[in-house]
Design goal:
Length: about 325
């Protein structure tokens, strides 16, 4: 069985009934890329670029950023690399980014709002990504989108830079679905976004109105809450309406109990922590989409996350 798992680790992932499911890795540093590939990652579904920006007095230059992104792209050896634009804010301050103290940092200047408030930072990061070769290996993803204007504003800068740099090839620009607003209007956003990737950590925080950093409530935060699952289903339907794929890059993609439900709801890409890739690939290979759909429909009728977890444990194959 171990030999089977290893052999499977480096093949493209499909369910037992033949549906293609991309299993990719979340990365937060260049050193994580090669081990992720060794674990069978089919690419990177979320590069958290904050590591380049924190704990320093000045922002990284375009050249410095390009060198990091290029090293990661090279380590992925041609596999897709989804680079998430800077996602810092009041809760993760940087000295060169003066953000006035906020009463509610989670509702304040964070995610793509920071880039739009500091166009120089946004433009430098986009220039650095556009300098990576081959063009097209890097895809760009916006964090914390709540309004379509945010996507349009970044698309306008990206198109201007592609013009300046004479890049004729399209560069995919997708969004993270982390706010209830984005999930509910996924069909409208998907008209203009090339892909959707659900950040279940923040989506759960904002849906349940429970601060993920507050220990007094964080233990009650479970992405398998029926409200979150309904929003995931809504997002997948919205994406499908415009033939966009919907992935999950939050913690649920690394949760064996959640994966069958996610597939049943229409998710076709799972971006997991590198260490979980072999487990997730083996799990998906043993599932049928038909069974996942029935299971997800049952989950959507459950009243609580605990109830859904009990249902998921009963569904899970023995070896889990
Ligand atoms: C998420 O919110 O689910 C996510 C993947 O982003 P982060 O955990 O970096 O906020
Ligand atoms: Mg997030």
């Amino acid at each position: 069985r171990r030999a089977d798992a290893l052999a499977r680790a480096h093949t493209l992932c499909h369910t037992a009934d033949g549906a293609r499911i991309e299993v990719v890795a979340n990365l937060g540093h260049r050193a994580e890329a090669a081990p992720a590939v060794a674990n069978g990652a089919e690419g990177c579904g979320l590069l958290r670029t904050e590591f380049l920006f924190l704990e320093r007095a000045t922002p990284p230059s375009v050249a410095e950023q390009t060198a990091e992104y290029q090293a990661i792209a090279d380590a992925l050896d041609g596999r897709p690399l989804i680079v998430r634009l800077l996602d810092i804010g009041g809760d993760k301050p940087a000295p060169y980014l003066p953000i006035a103290p906020e009463e509610n940092p989670a509702l304040g200047l964070r995610g793509i709002r920071v880039g739009l408030a500091h166009p120089d930072l946004l433009e430098d990061q986009l220039r650095a990504i556009l300098a990576v070769r081959p063009i097209g290996q890097c895809r760009i993803m916006l964090p914390m989108v709540a309004r379509i204007e945010e996507l349009r504003a970044v698309r306008a800068v990206l198109d201007r830079l592609r013009g300046e740099l004479a890049i004729a090839e399209p560069v995919a620009l997708g969004i993270m679905v982390e706010t209830p607003a984005a999930a509910i209007t996924a069909d409208l956003l998907a008209r203009e976004a090339d892909f959707l990737s659900i950040g279940t950590n923040d989506l759960t925080q904002y849906t349940l109105a429970m601060d993920r950093a507050n220990p007094a409530v964080a233990s009650a935060l479970d992405g398998l809450h029926p409200a979150v699952l309904r929003l995931i289903g809504e997002t997948c339907r919205g994406g499908a309406r415009h033939a966009r794929w919907t992935g999950v890059c939050g913690g649920l993609a690394s949760d064996s109990l959640a994966v069958p439900i996610l597939l049943g709801l229409g998710v076709t890409e799972l971006s997991a922590t590198p260490g979980m890739i072999p487990t997730i690939k083996a799990l998906v290979a043993g599932l049928t989409l038909a069974a996942c759909r029935t299971h997800a429909a049952q989950a959507l009728e459950c009243t609580s996350a605990d109830h859904i977890r009990a249902l998921a444990r009963a569904f899970a194959p023995q070896e889990m």
